[in-house]
Amino acid sequence: HGTVSDETGHYVLRHLPAGEHTVIATFVGMQPQERSVSVQAGHSHELNFALTETARQLDEVQVRALKSANQ
């Protein structure tokens, strides 16, 4: 199962089978978080995440263009 959040960060996971599950929240440039939840049939659960920025920087990207002889 998987989902994405809306622009306000809200998300819903539907039709999870009863039992233990791990929910992982990720976003580019943020430290991933994971939480365990015990799902019971017929019940809903709320898990809130507050992701923090990572100190990691992306490597630089180089873009080069070449002109061919027939252009």
Q: How many strand elements?
A: 2
SSE succession? EE
Treating each run of at least 4 consecutive H or I residues as one helix, how many helices? 0
- Strand order of the biggest β-sheet: 1-2
Question: What's the end-to-end separation, in Å?
Answer: 49 Å
Proportion of strand residues: 15-25%
Description:
The chain has 71 residues and is mostly beta strands. The chain is 0% helix and 20% strand. It has no helices and two strands. It has a two-stranded antiparallel sheet. It is elongated, with a radius of gyration of 20 Å.
Topology of this protein?
Layout: E1 19-25, E2 33-39
Antiparallel strand pairs: 1-2
Task: Name its key features.
71 residues, mainly beta, two-stranded antiparallel ribbon, 20% strand, 2 strands
Summarize the structure.
The protein has no helices and two strands. It is an all-beta fold and 71 residues long. β1 and β2 form a beta hairpin.
